[in-house]
Amino acid sequence: MTPAPSTVETIAYLKSLPAVRERAEQVYARAQEGHLKHFDVEFARLNDVAKFVVALIKRDYDAADIPNIPPHTRLRHFDVGQKDRIKQLCESWKGRVDTMETVRRLVDLVVVSVLLDAGAGDRWTFEVKPDNIQKVSRTYARSEGLALASLAMFKEGRFSSDIHRSHQVDGKKSPL
After folding, report:
1. Known InterPro entries for this protein (predicted)?
2. Contacts of 19 (CB under 8 A, 6+ apart)
3. Are the beta carbons of 131 and 138 closer than 8 angstroms?
């Protein structure tokens, strides 16, 4: 019997290109079948979208930089300022929760964080106060600021109605 993957291995896999491709293929197949619940795909316009994205890349990057364009993901937003906050969060759970629970918690965090990011605009900011590691306040805007704000709220248990399971999003408690 193969042992269950560790939390680190599971997270590494979920961050990997094969994992993203597998999930994207599943969504694409459902779209082709017309089985998406919340939106439809206009397949006739996909070529136009691809051309638009390529034009943005060419506008913003030199040809030599194209292979090194970093992926734009919520997980990278949590790591703004070169701090691996997700690793720190997982370390805080070590020995208290198993791999599956860690993955559940991370999915809760990422989903609520992305949903809160929708439509916040470009004026919203989040200030990270000084602590024993960071000596000065820093202000973050846009997706990075929203990621850090949602992470702080998640760590405080603001998305959970259960004080014994504060690191979850259960939809029963308002974050405000």
Report:
1. DUF1688
2. 13
3. no
Q: Please, are residues 103 and 141 in contact by the beta-carbon 8 Å criterion?
A: no
The residue behind tokens 């690191």 is: 167
* Mean pLDDT by groups of 10 residues along the chain of 176 residues: 73 81 90 88 91 88 79 82 88 91 92 81 79 74 88 92 88 64
- Domain residue extents for the chain: 7-68, 74-155
Dist CA 169 CA 107 (whole Å): 9
Tally Cβ neighbours within 10 Å of residue 159.
Answer: 23
pTM score of the predicted model: 0.61
How many other CB atoms are found less than 10 A from the CB of residue 113?
A: 24
Rounded CA-CA distance 170/20 in Å is 25
